[in-house]
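Dear Dr. H.,

I hope your travels went smoothly. While you were away I took the liberty of generating a structure for the chain from your last submission, since the lab meeting agenda had it listed for discussion. I wanted you to have the full record in hand beforehand rather than looking at slides cold. The sequence, exactly as received, is reproduced here:
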Amino acid sequence: MAASHQLADLLQELKERSGRSYTALASRTGLSRSSVHRYCQGLTVPASFGVVERIARVCGAGQEDLDRLYSAWARADAEASAQAEAEAEAEAEAEREAEAEREDVAAGPVVGTGHRRPWPVTWFTRRRRQRLSLRLRTLLITLLLATSAAASAVTLDGLPGQGPDGGTDGTTAGKAGDSPEGQQVDGPYWALAPKPLDPEFFGITMNTDTGLMPGFDVGGVRLWESETRWAQVEPERGKFDWEILERSVRGAERARLPIVFVFGGTPGWAAPGGPKTPYPDDSRAAPPDDLADWDHFVEKVATRYRSRIGAYELWDSVGATSHYDGDMSTLAEMVRRAARIIERADPDAKVACPSFGKLWEPEGRALLAKFVRTGAYEFCDAAALKLHPRRADGPPEEIIELAARAEDVFREHNEGQRVWNTGPGAEIDDGAKLSARRANDYAVRFYLVGLYVRKSNVDRMYFYAWGSRNIPLVVQPVGGRPTEAGRRIGRLHGWLADTRITSCGKGRGVGLPDGVFECVFRRGQDGESDSVGQGPWLAIRWTQHGRAGDRLGEEAALVRRMDGGSERVRPGERVEYGETPVLVEYRA
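The corresponding predicted structure, in token form, is as follows:
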């Protein structure tokens, strides 16, 4: 029996056992009725196991059912891939024969006059012409889309292009007259009905084992490089040392900060042949030799910290062999197993797929694409990505370009994912340092850029890192006071408390001087002042480099500055925008 039929029989058995119709299954799984029918009849093999699992869970499948389904799906998927490869080879062979025939047609047989007579049109040449016609149509559509994208890059604010001074700043202002023959469109980079920010948007990665928390306002903490790696929590198989992790969790609970726990750092006993990580413990960059060890550890953590840890990230810095040296299929299987275990142990906890780094490099994006193709994102609430400037001391606005490149990878594979930016990857440690002024500005703009790239589905930003002195941008050393950069992060968090974001844009597209970025917010919670033009609103504005002056519009009332100062203003008053963001408050 074909593997696809075995998979279909298992699904059909579950369907009949549940007593649900195809329509009911479609409604509860979010799939179309025809798709569910095709899967249960063996007419189509789902592209990812996540689809199979959704159907099975609605039918009340147990763990043994899921294991049998996964084995059947894996065989069916391999069978479908082999068939696709065979068809592709047959198609290629047909193309080679058609090319030879085309050359013969061009020559034709010689007739008595010395002229060449064309060959008669056969079924085979008609088939080839149909394929050629399809390719031409596809090429035409591709060219039209490319032309549309190029026009958007000229007319829409914030897409990659030339900065106002001729240098690349990761965005373009959409200047009138840039493309005299193209359509000129003014407007923000993105706009939507006012939406509240994720309460955990202002995240920060902890670099301490003390349990101390930031001395300025943030929205959540991420535990990595906090001496809570797998090798440290389970130094011997079955023997756990919870002291450091418990201290960190209790510290976050006292500060009322939601937690993301990052899995990673396989113990040496679980992968004795794996390469060591850069950390001083016995952690390895390889996956465990026996995935049952992974299952056991994930279950222990998720069960112990049920309702205390709100989210789990399933590895850090994939793309850097110093952190993960395994293949993508194994990593995908680890994600599938962990997600199922966490769901059973703590159904309310969120799961973020492993953090992928090295995304500035083609090989890094190719690795991400390979992981996307495994279907593992079906099991995750978010995609963790390492979105950062090209260099450790680069301007945060470079993240805009990188976020768009990562988004393209997901789009190419028809995958839509919420993104959590977990800061720089392991490959960016270049020893750079920032001056005090640039550190103050960059710390705040890291989060503002995160708002700007909401268009690329970025929901959370985790600044790297809290507690360390040996990084380019220090916000607070362990045991010390917050730096001015840290205090300004807290001030920005305060500015945006109880606001809902509505748009971000840049330059002339939003009625500002070239090079000025802007994000706009409304005061009040959901349901309050929803109509345009009602309720107070505010705008945060800044530049990547240089200064630009402008006159304030109607209803401008107050300007707040990052140093804590503020001043009353009037409409028409001139204000200077620069690399230090400012907030302008407007009346209703």
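Two observations you may find useful: Confidence is low (pLDDT under 50) at residues 104-179, 527-533. Residues 156-197+496-588 form one domain.

With kind regards,
E. W.
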